[in-house]
Automatic annotation (TrEMBL):
Protein name: Extracellular matrix protein 2
Biological process terms in GO annotation: extracellular matrix organization; positive regulation of cell-substrate adhesion
Gene3D superfamilies: Ribonuclease Inhibitor
High-level lineage: Eukaryota, Metazoa, Chordata, Craniata, Vertebrata
Pfam families for this protein: LRR_8
Keywords for this protein: Leucine-rich repeat, Repeat
InterPro entries tied to this protein: ECM2 (IPR043184), Leu-rich_rpt (IPR001611), Leu-rich_rpt_typical-subtyp (IPR003591), LRR_dom_sf (IPR032675)
Example of a GO MF term: heparin binding
Keyword set includes Hydrolase: no
Length: 228
């Protein structure tokens, strides 16, 4: 019988070497939550070439950055409850068909820790992204380009405002001002749920155009907010 799922949670694991998974080429799920892993102790060739590895759970370890050299085939990445301060640029750029579920709740992400190219390679694939319970002061750039995103959590941060163009793409009719391919123009946002509660947002000052791509405003959770 071929090993397809491996659960190694609640141990004292500190390292993932290049040979750890040499004989598990058909593995689909690896769970390493509640260990003592740091990103520099994960070997570059540990799992990047595993063609069937679709889900990795590294929650509650000692990670400070989203790890590099993740599997090309990865669809689910769970990094809840680490010390992550940064999503390096192009860290998802090599993945095909692309990461679909990214969970980074309960970390230490700041605005400086998310680059304009942090989500490169995942713009056309991400369906769920959880960035709640971090240290963000603004809505990260690039969310309005995530055409398949359905569920977004930004609650319990330090966000004070939501600019109109930050979550939903603004369409400009003047062809001389902005040119898009026909495919891009016809591609509507699939965003269904947005959580922004427990930030520092003055909801009365929000632009009426902050969420034009979301069909139902009851799908945008804005209350309660923290007091300044």
């Amino acid at each position: 019988m071929l090993l397809q799922e491996l659960y190694l949670e609640n141990n004292q694991i500190e390292e993932v070497s290049e040979i750890c998974f040499n004989h598990t080429k058909n593995i689909n799920v690896i769970v390493l939550k509640h260990n003592k892993l740091e990103e520099h102790r994960i070997a570059p060739l540990a799992w990047i070439n595993h063609e069937n590895l679709e889900s990795i759970d590294l929650s509650y370890n000692k990670l400070y950055h989203v790890p590099s050299y993740l599997p090309k085939s990865l669809l689910h990445l769970i990094l809840i409850g680490n010390q992550i301060e940064r999503i390096p640029g192009y860290v998802f750029g090599h993945m095909k068909p692309g990461l679909e579920y990214l969970y980074l709740s309960f970390n230490k992400l700041t605005d400086d820790g998310i680059d304009p190219v942090s989500f490169f390679g995942a713009y056309r694939s991400l369906r769920e992204m959880f960035l709640d319970h971090n240290e963000l002061k603004s809505v990260p750039f690039g969310i309005n380009e995530m055409r398949k995103l359905r569920f977004l959590r930004l609650n319990n941060n330090k966000i004070r405002t939501v600019p109109p163009e930050r979550i939903c793409r603004i369409h400009i009719d003047d062809d001389d001002v902005h040119e898009n391919s026909e495919e891009e123009e016809n591609e509507e946002s699939r965003l269904e749920h947005v959580h922004l509660e427990n930030n520092y947002i003055n909801t009365r000052q929000l632009s009426p155009h902050a969420f034009p791509c979301i069909r139902s405003y009851c799908s945008v959770v804005l209350k309660p907010q923290k007091r300044k």
